[in-house]
Amino acid sequence: MGLTAILRGFAGILVCLACAMLPPLILATANGEASAGPFLYGAVITLVAGGGAWAASIGRTPPSDFRGALVIILLWWIVAPAFAAIPFAQGCMTFADGYFETIAAITTTGGWLSYDAAVASPALMLWRAILQWLGGLASIVVAAAIFIRPAFIGIDTLLPPFSRGAKNDFLRPLRNAVFSFWSIYAGVTFVAFAVFALAGADTLGAVVMALSGVASGGFLPGAEGVGGLTPWLIVMMFFVMAISGSNFVVIARLVRGAKERVRDIENATYVAMIAFVGFFFWLLAGAGDVDLIVPHLFNAASILSTNGFTIGEAPPLAVVLVTAIIGGAAVSTAGGFKILRWLVIMRRAREELRRLIEPSAVFGIRRVSNELGVWIHFLVFTMTLGALIIILSSSGAAFDLAAAAAVSALSNAGPLVYLAEGGEGGYAVFGEAYRWALAAAMILGRLEGAVALALINRWFWRA
Fold first, then answer.
1. Which strand (E) or helix (H) includes residue 302?
2. Helices 203-214 and 171-198, interaxial angle, to 10°?
3. What single string gives the DSSP state of each residue in 108-171?
4. Over the range 303-325, which residues count as b (16 or more CB within 10 Å of their CB) and which as e?
5. 63 with 5: CB under 8 angstroms?
6. Which of 81, 117, 283, 355 is the most buried (most CB within 10 A)?
7. 399 to each of 194, 390, 404, how far by Cα in Å?
8. φ, ψ for residue 256 (rounded to 5)?
């Protein structure tokens, strides 16, 4: 499994986290915030742990197989948040609450124990946004390097703009994906910051909105939340959210001037879905004033990209939750089931219907050759969602609130919990034991269903 490769990868993760703590540390020190000490303590502890992991990995680094790559991914989603939670835990939170906040941030779920507390400290607000940005980059990297392959997704997809290396080496593709995407991801974020600043946002607000918006985190600075957005900021946020749910492989190819014509049915479907869902929201609202189409298009982009907040009249909760489950593109920062998987399922349904209608006809080559991974993910997703709703309902919460929280966590669209009656207080309405279940769902939302099943299969680890 390549233990030295795993340790070196984990060391890189911790060093990255330690460096990411410097901007909020500087901000906290400049503002005289009490969080300056916890940030310094967290950076030192994380850097020392990263240095220890690096020292333990000195020597020959053999190729890491799929299990090794999976361990590194799990270390990112499960263990790294324990270090990232130090600034929260050293403040006014318990470690459990700080860990939950970190998981909500790093999985780009958003939706906090308390929104007012989340925006009260500029340094901690910036830290949440940075974690979301890093989590968004990780989601793109893992999807492009590991998960978006015919074995998992059922069909051939656009080739990523980097080499995946040898067949049994899964660590190299992860590293190549980081180097390939980070500059483009950072460039899109810088452009988002610039347009937000030009639209009237203050510097810190523009930084937070850019970091979170590109990562589909749904985190807005200021106690007013969505109410604090000016019309120009709303327009700019619409485009940023739409990009966050788009296929970053296509964006990378366009930025690098790909000579071949870029054709991606998933991105085209995603854009069409924003238009269709926005129009549907408008119809459900009564189809009155044509000007109301604009906020409903905004809401459609927000929910499909799993940013999760809405402006104006919120659509019916059930429709919102179904939309969030659909999600964005496969290689994007958005959560949800992902549009590419729905396309595979629809193609399979169409082929089966045609065969039922004309069983003796010859239809040529099957368009979907290997959709087992899609169906496994579908089963794991739906069964987990159902189990989570039952668990949350057992807390005494109303069914609407339990369903909203479950979909918010599993689809990584945290702010949706605020739309349910009784969810105004965020995830704090659920006890600590239930929040552990929600945190697990947030992590599972970033994994493949087949991978989730492999985690509990002892033969997978023994083979």
1. helix 293-304
2. 140
3. T----S-HHHHTT-HHHHHHHHHHHHHHHHHHHHHIIIIISSHHHHSS--PPPSS---STT--H
4. bbbbbbbbbeebbebeebbebbb
5. yes
6. 81
7. 42, 9, 8
8. -90, 5
Q: Counting Cβ atoms within 10 Å, is residue 338 exposed (0-12), middle (13-18) or buried (19+)?
A: buried
How do residues 134-190 score in pLDDT, each as one tens digit?
A: 999 999 998 888 877 655 665 556 666 666 665 566 777 888 888 889 999 999 999
**Model confidence over 14-39: pLDDT tens digits?**
999 999 999 999 999 999 998 899 99
pTM over 0.85: yes
Closest CA relative to residue 266, chosen from 318, 336, 199: 336
The C-alpha angle 407, 275, 241, rounded to 5 degrees, equals: 60
Distances (CA, A) of 324 to 109, 134, 386, 396: 12, 22, 15, 24
Tell which residue, 186, 153, 51, has the closest CA to residue 370.
153
Distance of CA 92 to the CA centre of its chain: 27
Would the CA dihedral through 417, 418, 424, 425 be positive or negative? positive
Tokens found for residue 101:
């906040």
Closest CA to 406 of 163, 414, 292: 414
Contact predicate 327/339, CB 8 Å: yes
The secondary structure element, H or E, covering residue 279 is helix 265-284
Q: What are the angstrom distances between the C-alpha of 368 and each of 53, 62, 264, 351?
A: 43, 35, 16, 9
CA angle (389 as vertex; 460, 146 as ends), nearest 5: 35
Predicted confidence band of residue 366 (pLDDT cuts 50, 70, 90) = low
DSSP readout, 158-196?
PPPSS---STT--HHHHHHHHHHHHHHHHHHHHHHHHHH
| Dihedral angle over CA of 394, 398, 402, 404, nearest 10 | 180
Place of tokens 């807390």: 395
Residue listed under structure tokens 């489950």: 325
Rounded to an integer, what distance in angstroms lies between the CA atom of residue 339 and that of residue 327?
6
SS3 3: helix
Distance CA 157, CA 201 (A): 38
